[in-house]
Amino acid sequence: MGLTTRRSGRWRWASLLGATALAVSAGGALACPAGAAGTDVDFATHCIPPAIAGLPPIDGTTTATVSADNTSPKVGDTVTVTYTVVGAAASNPTDLALPADIMTPTGKVTLGGAQSGDITVAGPKKNPPVPGKAAFPSFSMTGTFTVTKAGKITLAPGDYNIHTSYIMELDTPCTVTNPPAPASETITATAGVPANTRAITLGSASGEPGASVEVSGTGFTPGAAVTLAGRSGTSQTGDTASVSADGQGSFSGSLVVHDTSTTGIVAYEGDSWNADTGAGPAAYVVDAPVPPGSQKLTTSVTAGTLAMTQAGDSVALSGVDFGQGGASTGALQTVTVKDFRGGPAGWSLTGRVTDFTGPGGKIGADRLSWTPSCASKAGSPSTCTAGSAGPVGSSGATLAGTADGTLTGGEFTVDAGLSLDVPAFTPPGGYSGVLTLTLS
């Protein structure tokens, strides 16, 4: 479709992976999922309408916001970035109305400061109907990048493209006229603890009592003394051996395994096992002799992952009246957490919310409160604990979690009552913010 230089309105929609959009109503209608709020920036944009439109290039102004789900990451962390075009540099130039869900946006976010490069971002194929001659709606795109350097890293909106799939496939690319555009967000990265890249492999996964198993390792400190040891559950057995890592941090050695309760083998630097300086356990079992006329049966249990799902990605809070304000309430879409890792670590589910933006300005993020609740599915090794009731805010709060233990895991459902305290004389209109949930 062709474009004109009309600016988009400020109502928003968004679909964020791992985020829950909130919709509220002041004076009866604060609507909407919204893009993550941040610092809006304006920048000159050069757009090329589809050739079929017969229109010349358009030089206009784009208003956009870029935000990050973690503004204080460590080196090595993965950061999710949201690029929201609040007001596109153009609009629908024809009398032809565009139907819903035909727009697919893509673009890039430019990194500056301590780290440089571009992040590819993309949005869902989702939009409300666009009447003829009407402004294009706001849209959001998300992407990720890995932090590689400590320091302040700026995020600036970059080029974007609007692809429409209606009657025919058309693209409207828009580029930043004077790159880079102004920075919309700044994150401060700190040096993280170096990742433990040590790893071991075994020549066999089982053997008779007294058999020798070959153990190979990589990623250890060059020249370091390495202990090979058997493990029985979380305890070390009496079976040990010593090897030395070569100049590349690799080794190859053998361990004689006598203990019939052995469940795995580890390798570590130092005087005792430490997960930060070791590798494993690699699964290993001792084959007990099978009596005559008997058959030995074996099986295995494979560790899974820690993941969450949501019952939906938007919440419509109740409306409030101009001049009265008060609590705009609703309920968080139910979150299901599945911890199928089978290890000793618990988990934590936290959330933080952006300011609610609308035609009258902002309703502060600190005005959103929640009352969390959490239930554990019968048979789950862990017990889920709900976070404290109170403000969520931009700095975040704990929604639920489980404690560390000898063996953790299970399936859990997490809910929360939501309440936004809307000031009495908030100008009528649509206000929206984004609640981002993080599971770790």
From TrEMBL:
**Gene3D superfamilies in the record:** Neocarzinostatin-like (2.60.40.230)
Signal peptide from the UniProt entry: 1-31
Q: Where are the compositionally biased (Polar residues) regions? A: 374-385
Indicate whether Lyase appears among the record's keywords.
Answer: no
UniProt keywords (A-Z) are: Signal
Q: What is the lineage of its organism?
A: Bacteria, Bacillati, Actinomycetota, Actinomycetes, Kitasatosporales
The segment annotated Disordered runs over 374-394
Q: Which organism is it from?
A: Streptomyces murinus
What is the protein named? Beta-xylosidase
